[in-house]
């Protein structure tokens, strides 16, 4: 079996990451009644004997669970979020050596995160990641979690991507990126997002874009249903999917419910790698089957049930007529079956789609960027930073434009009659 | 073209020969285990088998190993991730009747990601030495080595990619040995999006190295399970058991000559000699009747005339199973010149054969009349029917069936499925979709084109049979 390492960067990244660790522990606790360290747990955790005398924790590969340590790297240029984590019930799951923090933050500036901190912390980050990788028997994947709109997650997070590509070329890079909503209170979020997009397009194997606006809509809908009385019974409040009963904080913070949804997405994505099933799917099979062109690796995700007891036994054949597949991939389905459901549910369904509809998000982002950039608003904050030039902005915008154009070209094939290409003719 | 003499490996007439099974990837390992289970069970003395049947079957597939009480399979298990192999080893052990060797398997930790190029270009060379070492050890334990059966699927990355590479290595290392590849074709509406690429890449490469490709299609076997065997929730275990039964019906001891007393000693050699007389034609398909649930079997009786009639029509009409056979499909009347079949007139689109091998097992088998398979109209014009048909028989019953008839056919019957695979792969290739995943590991666009060309040639060759 293989292992994965979670790299959480910035405030959003760490908050979501923290929710993820809480959920994954709950899930394993639900399944692993005997407290034995098995390969499923090994995917994201080491089993450590903290009493060892040689200074470094010894990894225990089998037997009873002694002390689980998350295969995680936590990075933030401010201390607040990580400190809170270290004071909460998850503190023992993290090794202090896995944390990299600074005090002053990135000021919502991609350039500060990417160029300044990137340069400053490169060696230290590499060191931590190398050690985490060394603890893995067969490291398959890095999961990066961050937001696009700020400075640390966006800038330093994407700096990490190219670093990982250079240093660990054979390990997959899956990125969960939270995109800012239109009324995001960070004015420069379009700049940060577009600058980050270029890095994602060039250095990530697979990106799961999550729009904050969508998360807000979902959470609002859940609250609506919970308060409406009529459909309240349809909601399984104890399920991990919407449970705000975070073990980490006593008070529900505003982003908790939203972060929970993202954490659940990651949980479901990795379930097939962690647990057995009749049709296992490794993460490298996701990239192989869902990414037909290297730059078009943005996968739209949907998860059910989120707030209803929807019947998830919909065979894929029934979904087919309502979906328009590209002519050369009429049966473009990749299926995986995992036998362990999420806590509190009997079934769940996660769908990942490589769908041209993502271009709507990108187009929107580009428009917001252009609006700001036309007036060169706030640019000087970025150009201040060593290694940052105006060309960085234009290159990033061009990268996004050509990405949108690639999706447009594929969309243009919609509605055309499906004909087979003329085959090679053989002289007989 | 090859003459029969050059194909035949020199082998003593008496003395059983042994085969080495290579189980490659998940599918190959699962089917291999079912096959071994089946032949081991079928050969057991308590079923009233003649001693010689048991002895030959055992020698063919098993050997002894110090420290193990039960027969040990002459098999090498290879996979790029550990779960399937450990299940397979455990399943064999559980039978209590046989097991795999203690040092017969090789696996890694991370699979091939459904990527043929990963299996062929990366895993193949990387693990070549270790795998061939296991193979050599197995071959050395054969007193009379009769060839390889390499089992794999076409859809994934390990069986198809690594399997193809290892087959090439076998050819280099054992230039005079027989190599039969048993291939499982995936469901049409597959579970792997790039399966058609993987299939084209595999078939084109294997065609140059393997002696013959014996093919099973998941869609066909699935229908057999549902329509003939009445299985409700069909699992891969059900599918694999049917495939194992069909393979066993050909590979278990049987008389290859018109002689009552002597079992043939060289199963692979005899099979290839009967069916593959021209290097352009290597695709073999296998049909076996009857196949039914145990319950139905209780109330059924079979006659050889009925079995022969059905099997013959299945061959002509390209019906892969004994249900829904098109009885309208007819051969042109004798003397009618062989013309190319117009697609508009379906009655003329019968399946033309190059060679057929009938394997009959059971009561009164020597009374079975197989002349209806000797009609010249069944065969392509340049192959005389007398040479084209081989019949093997034994009165020993096979696996619960009082009478069992199999036909291994080198004919046009795989043409349509092959054509479908190529069409889908070609459409995808025209858009260059997923190609970067293969280029990443060393397969270029040129390589793809070469492979398409090879497979198109195979389709054209079979088309031209008539």
Automatic annotation (TrEMBL), chain B:
Keyword set, alphabetical order: Cell projection, Cilium biogenesis/degradation, Cytoplasm, Cytoskeleton, GTP-binding, Microtubule, Nucleotide-binding, Nucleus
Pfam family, one: Tubulin
PANTHER family: TUBULIN (PTHR11588)
Cited function: Acts as a positive regulator of hedgehog signaling and regulates ciliary function.
Location in the cell: Cell projection, Cilium; Cytoplasm, Cytoskeleton, Microtubule organizing center, Centrosome, Centriole; Nucleus
CDD domains: delta_zeta_tubulin-like
Domain Tubulin/FtsZ GTPase: from-to ranges: 58-258
A single cellular component GO annotation: microtubule
Protein name, as recorded: Tubulin delta chain
Main localization (coarse): other
GO BP term (any one): cell projection organization
Molecular function per GO: GTP binding; structural constituent of cytoskeleton
Family the UniProt entry places it in: Belongs to the tubulin family.
